[in-house]
Design goal:
heterodimer; A: 96 residues; mainly alpha; B: 462 residues; alpha/beta; Rossmann fold; 2 domains; 6-stranded parallel β-sheet; 18 helices; 6 strands; 7% strand
């Protein structure tokens, strides 16, 4: 039963994502990519559990590398998205 | 039980914040705020995970987190905007690597504990490492092509599609075998390896100009791998965030391939280079007209409406700041300037917008293709800066051309056209551009950055 519920969540989240992202203007497509990149760092949630539970050295090392990779995406992704979005400015009203 | 509830609530909050963050990207004014909220959502998810009962040791976690911060900071703050496509490809690789490693670790620990892995779980794990390792190698190749340490031209060989087809079939059958034999260790690792080689063979034959589609597709795969991780470890926020990424990447790749009038299949299985011979018109007997800097500057200075069409060449020459300078000079002389942005100009979705925004050009002057095209008959000068295929009229009037049917920016309808170009080498895949030979077109040869600088200097003296 839980699997079916998970499938529901997946499909509905996919729809929400599709609907929201259709309305993102091409102007912001690059920030959109870096934003989803940062959000894909959510793998961190899985990696943290692997790195933090006592399942032997091999699992811990794999987990630690995964945490490092995911955290890189989180930190780098959110920083660069912010850096880009800061650059998008509206024209200042010109006093012609 | 209370702890579990608290964890689930933080996950719910972060899922909502992620969706709100993506929604804020529909409005440039609100986007920054929204993404900061999404970052808070990420922080919540991390905290929620750290208080889980399974998490008992922190030394590996802290090591990983510190390494991630140390690597992430320069990737976020120091990478120049012109290097954006390769940077994105690079981080797809990281995200997918994290997902694959989690999948492998989950599989091996379950086996070591002597558990029989349920069918649903092994399916999720199998799909996770399939998409994960495919994205790792695929993104690495894309990164190499974009960063130009691998050749950007399509790498093709005879029988390629047969090899790829066989590879796909083998990978899929192996996935089914792994699902039906959840204790087969060797088969699982073989699946990891085989999927990695699929990524390799899939992206190698794809040329630089098709990269916007590839990057978007890999974005989608990285999301799907994260989602599969969520299924495998029963974590809802992973499923949701992965589905959001998957949908976003999928949608972007559809938009991109539509803007090139090509199907997915055509991009993935028909390297562009192979069909050129059929269509390309030769330029024999045609001559281009060159223009002097002084003439071009004069025309720009007296233009009432000038439209700049930027392309990948502008990114290569890093000429966005010089473009801005020329645009300002036109405006100072009383003219109007617009920037016409083709959806696939550059090497990734939205590439040109970011570069022009970096040069401080307000985003209301960046106009989409469908909006700018009706204005070209009233345009005095169309200034083409390093764009080629996206302004090629052959897409409209030459059914034999390989790019026929692709929507283009109608720069050829402008009263006069100035093309900044390094040399007469045709664009990628050697398609001749009729625009260069039209009577209202003049060429200004040289590096875009240098040409624009001298144009600006000349305009100042007028």
């Amino acid at each position: 039963m839980t699997e079916i519920l998970q499938l529901y969540v997946f499909v509905l989240a996919g729809f929400v994502g599709y609907q929201v992202i259709t309305r993102v203007p091409p102007l912001l497509h690059t920030p959109l990519m870096s934003a989803t990149n940062a959000i894909s760092g959510i793998s961190l949630v899985g990696s943290l559990v692997v790195a933090g539970s006592n399942h032997g050295l091999a699992a811990s090392i794999l987990g630690a590398i995964a945490v490092g990779c995911a955290m890189t995406n989180v930190v780098g992704g959110f920083l660069i998205t912010d850096r880009m979005l800061r650059m998008f400015k509206r024209a200042e009203p010109k006093g012609k | 039980m209370d702890r579990d509830l608290a964890i689930q609530l933080t996950y719910l909050a972060s899922s909502v914040l992620f969706i709100l963050g993506l929604r804020s990207l529909t409005k440039p004014d609100r986007a920054r705020r929204g993404m900061q909220q999404a970052a808070v959502g990420m922080l919540l998810a991390i905290i929620g995970t750290l208080i889980q009962q399974d998490v008992v040791r922190y030394e590996w976690i802290i090591g990983g987190l510190i390494a991630g911060c140390l690597l992430g900071y320069p990737l976020g703050m120091w990478v120049p905007m012109t290097a954006m496509p390769q940077r994105i490809a690079f981080s797809h690789m990281f995200g997918a690597l994290a997902a694959s490693l989690v999948g492998i670790a989950e599989f091996t620990t379950s086996l070591a504990a002597g558990e029989v892995i349920e069918t649903t779980r092994i399916s999720a794990l199998g799909i996770e490492v399939l998409f994960g390792s495919l994205t790792v190698t695929g993104s690495f190749i894309a990164f190499g092509k974009l960063a130009e340490f691998l050749p950007g031209k399509p790498i093709t060989y005879k029988g390629q599609n047969i090899v790829n087809g066989a590879l796909f079939a083998a990978t899929l059958s192996l996935l089914i075998f792994v699902i039906t034999h959840p204790d087969a260790r060797l088969a699982f690792f073989l699946l990891v390896g085989l999927s990695a080689s699929v990524g390799l063979f899939l992206v190698l034959p794809i040329g630089g100009a098709d990269m916007p589609v590839v990057i978007s597709l890999l974005n989608s795969y990285a999301g799907l791998a994260a989602s599969a991780t969520g299924f495998a470890i029963g974590n809802t926020v992973l499923i949701i965030a992965g589905a959001l990424d998957g949908a976003s990447g999928f949608l972007l790749s559809i938009i991109m391939s539509r803007a090139m009038n090509r199907s997915f299949r055509n991009i993935l299985f028909g390297a562009f280079g192979s069909q050129v011979t059929a269509g390309a018109k030769t330029a024999a007997g045609l001559a281009v007209q060159e223009v002097s800097v002084a003439d071009a500057a004069l025309r720009l200075a007296y233009a009432r409406l000038a439209v700049v069409v930027p392309g990948y060449g502008m990114a290569v020459a890093q000429a966005q700041h010089q473009v801005k300078e020329v645009a300002e000079l036109i405006e100072r002389n009383g003219g109007e300037v617009r920037f016409a942005i083709h959806p696939v100009a550059g090497r990734m979705p939205g590439h040109m917008n970011v570069l022009l925004a970096e040069a401080n050009i307000p985003y209301d002057e960046l106009v989409e293709m469908s909006e700018i095209n009706p204005q070209f008959p009233d345009t005095d000068v169309a200034l083409i800066v390093g764009a080629n295929d996206v302004v090629n009229p052959a897409a409209v009037n030459d059914p034999s051309s390989p790019i026929y049917g692709m929507p283009i920016i109608d720069a050829y309808k402008a009263k006069s056209v100035i093309v900044l170009k390094r040399s007469m080498n045709p664009g990628f895949a050697g398609i001749e551009n009729e625009l260069f030979y039209m009577p209202n077109t003049t060429m200004l040869f040289g590096d875009a950055k240098a040409s624009l600088s001298s144009l600006a200097a000349e305009m100042k003296t007028l």
